[in-house]
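Appendix C: a fully annotated inverse folding record. The material below is reproduced so that readers can follow the format used throughout the book. The structure is listed first as tokens, followed by the designed sequence.
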């Protein structure tokens, strides 16, 4: 149609609207593109010939090569930093520049490049470091270690121990609160606290009545049961000094200790005002013989055994006992032992309840 050609040439795309200075501008971005994608020989065609109808496929590179040109330029560099959020326009067939198989006029190329620049500019606000920070795994929350504490009270319940036994009975119901308050003041946190009692006298004098054991009581839930057991203890018997304290320590070591908690404390507290009898298997009731070593050397091995019932770093022994046979041997040889010497035969009258609670708090 000859009449359409002049109209297209003079009014729609005048030669003055595509000055030679604009085509090199497109060529400037093309210089960043590999030569195989935007050959220099195609540029003069666009600058010397007036586009005719249907000539666009001959003068411009196919769509797949035009949008790839910015990939190596500054705009593409910014788009790469935010590639996870915004795809490059026209990077794939069917993108913003057109559908597969279509071609783009020169002004469409300029428009596409400007649009890519706008996209890159809009992506400058969220910095890449912020995006990576949000994707990074958060640091694990810092939390305090949970402690599970088991306490075994070995209590001499012979006649002279009435004062300390009365103090224990009077404070049994508030024992949990007193211990927790003391631990809190020391900056310690105990998630599980259990207590058990081994009441002892003298096997040689009292036979099977020389020993009474309780299970572990979980406090504060079983505080009443703990108080009831302690209240049932009577300070009597024992005959002459000494008493069967070492047997009580052996039974305490072989207690069913907890395995809960990040950290554990296994605390044995001995209350007595008498020295100890030497270990003698002949006076120990048959039901207890497997749990009581034959002599002091075997008892020491049981305490020190890293593979034994006690943890090497979690065990503690607190002695409220006089200097004398048994107790002095323990405090001079065993590890993790605190000895508070008491007046022999004085019923621990010089040891008050607050000292006992504080010693327990220090051992945790």
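Designed amino acids, in order:
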């Amino acid at each position: 149609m000859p009449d359409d050609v002049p109209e297209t040439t003079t009014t729609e795309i005048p030669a003055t609207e595509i000055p030679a200075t604009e085509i090199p501008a497109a060529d400037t971005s093309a210089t960043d593109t590999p030569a195989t994608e935007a050959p220099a020989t195609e540029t003069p065609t666009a600058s010397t010939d007036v586009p005719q109808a249907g000539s666009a496929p001959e003068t411009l590179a196919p769509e797949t090569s035009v949008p790839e040109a910015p990939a190596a330029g500054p705009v593409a560099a910014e788009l790469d930093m935010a590639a996870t959020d915004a795809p490059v326009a026209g990077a794939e067939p069917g993108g913003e520049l057109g559908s597969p198989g279509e071609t783009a006029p020169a002004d469409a190329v300029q428009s596409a490049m400007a649009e890519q620049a706008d996209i890159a500019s809009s992506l400058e606000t969220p910095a890449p470091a912020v995006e990576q920070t949000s994707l990074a795994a958060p640091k694990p929350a810092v939390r305090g270690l949970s402690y599970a504490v088991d306490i075994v009270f070995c209590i001499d319940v012979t006649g002279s121990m009435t004062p300390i036994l009365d103090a224990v009975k009077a404070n049994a119901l508030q024992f949990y609160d007193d211990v927790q308050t003391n631990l809190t003041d020391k900056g310690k946190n105990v998630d599980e606290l259990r207590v058990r009692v081994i009441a002892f006298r003298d096997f040689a004098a009292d036979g099977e009545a020389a020993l009474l054991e309780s299970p572990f009581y979980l406090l504060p839930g079983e505080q009443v049961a703990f108080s009831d057991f302690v209240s049932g203890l009577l300070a009597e018997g024992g005959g002459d000094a000494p008493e069967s304290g070492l047997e009580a320590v052996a039974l305490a070591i072989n207690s069913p200790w907890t395995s809960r908690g990040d950290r554990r404390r296994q605390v044995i507290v001995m209350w007595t005002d008498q020295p100890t009898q030497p270990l003698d298997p002949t006076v120990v009731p048959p039901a207890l013989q497997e749990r009581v070593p034959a002599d002091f050397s075997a008892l020491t091995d049981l305490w020190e055994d890293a593979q034994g019932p006690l943890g090497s770093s979690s065990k503690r022994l607190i002695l409220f006992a006089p200097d004398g046979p048994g107790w002095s041997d323990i405090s001079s040889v065993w590890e993790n032992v605190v000895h508070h010497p008491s007046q022999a035969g004085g019923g621990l009258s010089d040891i008050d309840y607050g000292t006992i609670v504080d010693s327990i708090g220090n051992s945790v």
